[in-house]
Amino acid sequence: MAEVILMPRLSDTMTEGVIAAWHKKVGDKVKKGDLLAEVETDKATMELESYKDGTLLHIGTEKGGKLQVNDLLAIIGNAGEDISSLLGGGGQKAAAAAPEKTAAEPAKTEAKAEAKAEAKPAGESLDLANMQEVILMPRLSDTMTEGVIAAWHKKVGDAVKKGDLLADVETDKATMELESYKEGKLLYIGAQKGDKVPVNALLCIIGDEKKVDVEKIVAAAKGGVTSGGAAKAQPEAAAQPTQASAQTETAAPAANTGNGRVVASPLAKKLASEKGIDINKVSGSGDGGRIIKRDIDNYTPAAGGGQQAAAATAQPGKAAPAVAGQVSFEEVPVSQMRKVIAKRLSESKFTAPEFYLTMEINMDKAVESRTRINEVAPVKISFNDMVLKACAIALKQHPKVNSSWLGDKIRVNHHVNIGVAVAVEEGLLVPVVRFADLKSLSQIGTEVKEFAKKAKDKKLQPSDWEGSTFTISNLGMFGIEEFTAIINPPDSCILAVGAINQVPVVKNGQIVVGNVMKVTLTCDHRVVDGATGAAFLQTLQNLLEEPLRMLV
Predict the structure, then answer these.
(1) S-S: 156 plus which of 237, 470, 488, 552, CB 3.0-4.6 Å?
(2) Between 3.10.25.10, 2.60.40.2950, 3.90.190.20, 2.40.50.100, what CATH number should domain 134-220 receive?
(3) pLDDT (0 to 100) of residue 141
């Protein structure tokens, strides 16, 4: 039976999406997990995957077309199936034909939907997605299926304005700030700190308490939160004494959270970047010390200095060491990021037939060149920057290594987008240096440093980590001589870079001290053969052993 796919709300402020590209056309076979389309939202271009097997019978608009949230995006069913009943009147009628379906949930049959509708009172059949007072959990990353509430910055009863920070939501890739896109009073929160909330489930209600039937909305959304604590959120918040509220507000940080993340509105961050202002030195005047536009407008270096000195002075007491012989351990919940890392890399490890190629590279001339380059370079160039540049040039000469495995076809990429693995406290992020072959060493060095800082501050956005064609993982700075890395799908290869060590080498028949670096290329044998990978490494070796070739 044909299933309707509606335009999902992919960001907290999204009201419509633009089709940036279709990856399937009407008549094509579609499997679960296949990439259907790329949707441009108000914040990023995200990939939309199919959650059903079948044939693509209809698309709601062509490339470049706009669709409102919950408009008809596509229909998937059996080849030749009659879908006229789903097309009458466009997206809204199509949506009405499938009231229990959302783009982020697995599709249910019409029979189950009708039975569920009959079991519910008529008053609970509400279209929460189109209610102005309702805020649902947005999909804040391309692979997100649920979010964890890291912190609430408002409590029930507080007045909320547009742009106010409501909560911090931990996704599978980063912790992101959720801002309010309406004004009113916070009447209800659907999950407490630490609770998991599926995409499109009820997150909170904001509005006029005299006009909004909170109980009716909550009843309609019942079951959307995985934690049992959500149902108690409103009465518990209402029962908090005024004294506790005052203490909470007093304890709020001025402009920086305990994990080093600056609390500021997106507009304030943008203005600070444009004006060259270090936002860490700005004192916030918004709720909870949040930095807003007027703080940037009124900031002067003299006024901004020294105001963060009092932050983080109190250190939590350390637990006493365990008694000798006593069993002691700590169990830490798995973060969303770690779950996705485990899932994606397990899929890569157990589905891709990998093989490994290791080569030693003499880095004597690279060491000498880097010293001379840094004498005149506007930013300090690292060995990793030189490896990245050399890989970019080598990938242009060996396009098969720059290819992607897509199941029933291989995509040979003509552009070179290199992902750089960056370790963060919760796991690993891979921001992408785009068109690396066209950038200078200084540009690459600057971009990699900015990405590393954003990753550690949890400021990376989906557009920063999407679209790699090749990946580099470097553990040389930790003294690791040699290792193998797991491919980052859908890339076909990843390069593991070890440390540069001084070892005896033979030059002109004499044993001398040389600087040697080992690299290991992990290859997906479905795309890259041994000879192809070896030829790539030879080119990489030639470029790093004679760095002047990278300038030609």
Answers:
(1) 237
(2) 2.40.50.100
(3) 64
